[in-house]
Design goal:
It comes from Zostera marina (Eelgrass). The chain is mainly alpha-helical and 107 residues long. It is built from seven helices and no strands. The chain has one domain. 52% of the residues lie in helices and 0% in strands.
Length: 107
């Protein structure tokens, strides 16, 4: 895949993720957008998360982990993003990042 196509796909995924995040918590947009490198992994298109994904994920966990609930609890398919929740829940272990339990999203 050429660099131009990869950049276009990343930009498209970031735009879709921004729309997805804005539907639930508008104040989380700037927190969630940097997670675009995680989309290939959490959609099942990549077998492992990239280094950029893990770095962004660790940053979100340390700055505003509550915003991750918008990704786990929402239905992104209506915005063109189909996140596999089962895979997304493996992201902390895959990136070696300690997170609050997902059950805290319900509080």
């Amino acid at each position: 895949m050429g660099l131009g196509l990869r950049l276009a796909l990343t930009a498209a995924m970031a735009a879709m993720l921004m729309v997805y995040a804005s539907a639930d918590l508008p104040d989380c947009n700037s927190v969630i957008i940097p997670l675009a490198p995680c989309l290939p992994f959490v959609t099942g298109a990549a077998p492992t998360p990239s280094i950029n994904c893990c770095t962004a994920f660790a940053s979100v966990v340390s700055s505003n982990p509550r915003c991750l609930c918008t990704v786990l609890d929402g239905d992104g398919s209506k915005y063109g993003v189909s996140i596999n929740r089962k895979i997304a829940l493996t992201l902390p272990a895959s990136c070696n990042v300690v997170t609050p339990p997902p059950e805290e999203c319900n509080n």
